[in-house]
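Researcher:
Attend to token order:
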Amino acid sequence: MAVYVFGQAKEYARAELDYGQTYHQQMLGEIACPVRYVCADIVGQNKIELYEKAGIDAGQILGLHQFLTGGRTVCPSIKAKDKLMELKACFEGARVEERESEIWLVKDGYVIVSILLDERDQSLLKGVSYFSRAKLLRMEIYTDRVSYANYYMTAKSEHGLYAKLVRRSFYRGDGSVAYDQIFEGKKEWYIFPDGRRYTKQQLIARFVRELSFSNGDVVILDASVPQEIMRTIFTFGRAARIVAAVHTGNYFAKDENGQALFLKEYPYYWFPYSEMIDSMIVPAEAQKKELLKVLKKHRCTVPGIRVVPIEGEFTYSVLNESYGENLALSWVFSGKSDGFWIYDELGKLICETRNEHQHYFLIEGYGKESGFVVKAFVDTVKGKRAIAESGVVYCACGEGEYGKLAVSLIIPAYNAEDYIGRAMDNALAQSLKDLEIIVVDDGSTDSTSDILDWYVECYPNVNVIHKENGGVAAARNTGIEAAGGEYSGFMDSDDMIRPDMMKMLYDSAKKNDCDVAITSFYTITQSGYVGFMEYVVNEDTGMPVEMFFKRNFVSGYGIVVWNKLYRTSLIKKHLFPVLLYEDEAWTPYIFSYVNKVCFLNKHFYEYDRIIRSNTLADQLNEYSRKRKFVFRKNAMLFYLENGNQKRIELLKKITQNCLNSIKGYYSQEECEEFWREVEKDF
């Protein structure tokens, strides 16, 4: 018995739907048998990353071409150095040039071969391209063997000459050609060695037939499955048990050009096949009733309908007292929604938000004995439909016991009266209970101090330190010196964090015995939420810091300090330098003393660029370019001089990357001169 999930990874990514995690946790978790995610296209690195981003292991992907050629894997496994030795023997006299992501063989002034390295592990072979006097002739793509090869001819267009793909050959494990894909204009077809010619639809049909479904197999279809694949399943896959996952929302809400798109025919295109569907999965009892009504109206066969909350669920919710006699409601919703409704316990709607990322709401005008409910909704052709609710949440202020401190969250604050309450509410909403919140009031002259003192009186895990103004670096150092947690994190007073950030990062750091745990994050702008630091690495897995340095560490957002948890004993030995661009100075410095890091691509941190103006970054822009370059040089010199000298080459690489990224803004001559000094002195 096996489960085959048909779906389009690019659609899940466009919809930001955590598809794999949802199925694993709520539906496929009940099935003790192999689960394969079927892809009818070529499974390249980009598609693998989309599946992995959705929580699906690459080993579970079953590619159409992989299956028809007898391939065992979709991932590279051949060592690049072995292929290089083979090619050097074939092309005697060629010079080897190593580049960032490829290795060239050069002869008579031309690149004749380019060895393409795997993006995630550059010791592995991704492909080989062959050239004749700068013209691309052939490109081989490898997994555990040659998977396929593209053949090109030089063609003309209005923009000039280009390499035109004319044929693609797919190979069996023994090196023989399984079949060719021919391209002619907008047409394409497949030719087998025995002369048979297939369209794409016919090739898919052959693939489904050769899967040889039995009555013990389960095929899961959802809204992303193309019509041609669906027709093929219902024609040749009827031996298996067919399950239709019927979502309620307009998940695929934007087309390839970013234009709004709503599938108004959905879910009606299932109906012609209803008599062949063994069961349908819906996310809510209300939708089950709606679906039954519509099926009967159209005189369709009614299959078994099961309620499984595929769209998501509330995994955590909390209500706390907030400054000014207000209440702070926070929640964690796992899944995809189009927005949230917030009701009081009597059923009165007090807020509707279409911000699908929202996790915090400030409630005014209610007593602390009041209760509230959060509901997630999606848009359907019938209007908005609730898909999950939190249950009634009551005020938790003063409840809970604090054990051995796990994490210290350090928040510097200076004249932050307009937003420090929101930051405190976010910090206090954390699902990690063994958390201390250290706020360093850096000599505020507004009401920030009064607001913080109120939180100290209300919450036993809040510690406020009032000091003279000394800047954010000195404030963070004060917080580090006071920290008692096993790990410590930083938060800026004008940003937000999701309620499960501290717990998830702490659990990952402990599980993998890491010095630093990192998360991706959102930047909030007037245009919406933009994701950053979405590294392509194995999540929740310990990684040697050298590997992390080489793959991911660049200037810009890579050097921010607030999307990480650090081992407290480590940062107590290595405090912040008190200078401008302190993040850029300290992050490479501290990482040079780290052994292992882990990463979660969960966007736990939210860097808010809307709530206030005149940030530190804005203030830095008041300096001249020449002056700012001096500040940045000082930051780089700090980690070069004070960082772990056993990793000086990695620190120099960071410096080089930084200079390359900023030389378009600053003087290129100054950048190059400083790099020469670095090479000379370090």
Summary: The longest helix spans residues 625-642. Residues 13-21, 248-266 have pLDDT under 50 and may be disordered. The first strand starts at residue 3 and ends at 6. The two ends are 61 Å apart (CA to CA).
